[in-house]
């Protein structure tokens, strides 16, 4: 019971951190999101995968300071790639970053975890099933994040609104 309470406090902290609490509306919206996560949670894995993705977006935020997003992606992969991405996805992203650094136009023309070149804000994260999470942004775009949960959960792929996916994009050869 105590671990359930700790997890709930962790989700509350992440929710307020990710969604802000600087206004009554934002606080109310965050509470509603937390309530929906709590009501939806029948077992620990539901909250765990939603918390995992919330934590990922808390740590990975390339648009905070502007500048070169490829370098921020590269820095993130170096520091946190093993914590959040499957080895296969990590290597594919690193290959694309290397290609870009060599001066070529490579496979990614947007941030792979936001599907955007512009700053957008995470609005909601919901569990679709044991290995799939829906991520909604303030511009109404939606990503489906696929997880490989063998031991611990790691992001294995992302499905974009047009039906394409990150792994296929990264494997494209010119």
Q: What does the secondary structure layout of this molecule look like, with pairings?
A:
Blueprint: H1 2-19, H2 24-40, H3 44-59, H4 69-84, H5 87-101, E1 122-129, E2 132-137, E3 142-150, E4 152-159, H6 166-171
Antiparallel strand pairs: 1-2, 2-3, 3-4
Helix pairs in contact: 1-2, 1-3, 4-5
Largest β sheet strand count, sense and barrel closure: 4 strands, antiparallel
Q: Radius of gyration over alpha carbons?
A: 16 Å
pLDDT averaged residue by residue: 76
Number of helices: 6
Extended strand count: 4
Q: What percent strand? A: 15-25%
Please give the order of strands in the largest beta sheet. 1-2-3-4
Distance between the termini: 54 Å
| Uncertain segments | 16-31, 33-46
Structural class: alpha+beta
Residue share in helices?
A: 40-55%
Give short descriptive properties of this protein:
174 residues, alpha+beta, 6 helices, 18% strand, globular
Sum this structure up briefly.
This protein has 174 residues and is of the alpha+beta class. It has helices at residues 2-19, 24-40, 44-59, 69-84, 87-101, 166-171; strands at 122-129, 132-137, 142-150, 152-159.
Q: Overview of this structure, please?
A:
With 174 residues, this protein is α+β, with helices and mostly antiparallel strands. Helix content is 51%, strand content 18%. It has helices spanning 2-19, 24-40, 44-59, 69-84, 87-101, 166-171; strands at 122-129, 132-137, 142-150, 152-159. A 4-stranded antiparallel β-sheet has the order 1-2-3-4. A hairpin with a 4-residue loop joins strand 2 and strand 3. Helix 1 packs antiparallel against helix 2 (24-40). The protein is globular and about 40 Å long. The termini are far apart. Residues 16-31 and 33-46 have low confidence and may be disordered.
């Amino acid at each position: 019971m105590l671990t359930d309470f700790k997890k709930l406090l962790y989700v509350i902290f992440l929710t307020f951190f990710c969604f802000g609490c600087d206004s009554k509306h934002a606080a109310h919206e965050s509470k509603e999101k937390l309530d929906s996560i709590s009501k939806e949670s029948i077992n620990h894995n539901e909250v765990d995968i939603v918390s995992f993705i919330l934590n990922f977006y808390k740590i990975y935020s390339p648009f905070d300071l502007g500048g070169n997003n490829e370098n921020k992606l590269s820095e993130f992969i170096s520091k946190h790639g093993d914590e959040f991405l499957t080895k296969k996805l990590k290597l594919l992203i690193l290959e694309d970053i290397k290609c870009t650094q060599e001066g070529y136009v490579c496979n990614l023309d947007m941030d792979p975890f936001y599907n955007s070149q512009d700053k957008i804000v995470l609005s909601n994260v919901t569990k679709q099933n044991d290995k799939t999470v829906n991520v909604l942004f303030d511009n109404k775009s939606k990503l489906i994040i696929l997880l490989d949960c063998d031991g611990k959960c790691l992001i294995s792929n992302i499905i974009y609104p047009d039906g394409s996916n990150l792994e296929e994009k990264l494997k494209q050869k010119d």
